[in-house]
Amino acid sequence: NPFYLIEDHYKIFANISSGYHAPSLYQSYSQYGNRNLKPEQSVNYEAGLQYYSNKVNARVMGFVRNIRDVLYFYTDPVTYSSKYINADKQNDYGIETEATVNFSSSFSVSANYTYIDGKIATTDFSGKDTSYFNLYKRSKNVLNLSLNYQITKELFVSAQLKTVSKAFEPQYMGPNYELKGYYTLGLYGQYLFNKHFSIFADFQNLTDQKYFVTRGYTTKGFNMNAGVKVKL
After folding, report:
1. Beta strand pairing status for 82-102 and 56-75?
2. pTM value surpassing 0.85
3. Is 105 helix (H, G, I), strand (E, B) or coil?
4. DSSP β-bridge partners for residue 64
5. Dist CA 70 CA 134 (whole Å)
6. How many CB atoms lie within 10 A of CB 164?
7. Which residues, other chains included, contact 48 with Cβ-Cβ below 8 Å and sequence gap of 6+?
8. pLDDT > 90 fraction of the chain, expressed in percent and rounded
9. How many whole angstroms separate alpha carbon 21 and alpha carbon 70?
């Protein structure tokens, strides 16, 4: 990744890459196959800025991904005939940020945030051009926050917050189903008796949130695990 240093604390970086994805045997020769499929070809651009010091390490990056001849499973809404086709293109873009701040030798805060959006453009069996959001089950906004505290030399605790915005799941011959946004809270603790022996406890989804990543499949409510670590 090419980068450029500014003084002692800043770094600017950029990267351009390309990709190639050939259709599978199933996509080409199954009952839904299409022997005329072209391989997907993509070009990816990313650039960003990083700042680092003894107390702060932060980074922000933007990215754009353009894919041509996207492999796509299409069902005709009139005849219900289905097969794999090449969509015209897929355009995705977003930002990623992350930062860690050490307020003292014992207390630090870490956070990261991701935003992503995109759409696909395709021509259906009737020759009609359509363009729409298709990043199914991908939330546009995801935020993670962690507070870490070394209370004593032996005792460490950490609290975590995760927030996820709404997402959408496709339905066959129907409108997209909305997966509602959610948040979870977690708490982790570890006590070190000596350099060989420690105990830990990890509490997840403390508020027992009910949410779905896939419709109809519930995720874990409040749960915990604890154990012993031994280093020889």
Report:
1. antiparallel
2. no
3. coil
4. 45, 93
5. 12
6. 19
7. 12, 13, 14, 59, 60, 61, 62, 96
8. 68
9. 9
Bridge partners, residue 71, by sequence: 86
CB 93 within 8 A of CB 66: no
Give me the count of residues in the chain.
232
Instruction: Give the Cα separation of 40 and 27 in Å (integer).
Output: 13
**Burial (0-12, 13-18, 19+ Cβ within 10 Å), 232:** exposed
Extract the tokens encoding 193: 């008796």
Average confidence score pLDDT of the chain: 90
Helix H, strand E, coil C: the string for 44-58 is EEEEEEEEECCCEEE
User: What dihedral do alpha carbons 71, 73, 77, 82 form, nearest 10°?
Assistant: 120
The SS3 assignment for 165 reads coil
* CA-closest candidate to residue 179, choices 135, 147, 130, 232: 135
Residue 145, strand partner residues: 111, 161
Per the listing, tokens 């419709």 go with: 215
CA distances for 167 relative to 140, 164, 188, 217, angstroms: 7, 9, 28, 15
Q: Which two tokens stand for residue 192?
A: 């070190």
Residue-wise pLDDT tens digits, 50-100: 999 989 999 999 999 999 998 888 887 788 888 998 888 889 999 999 999
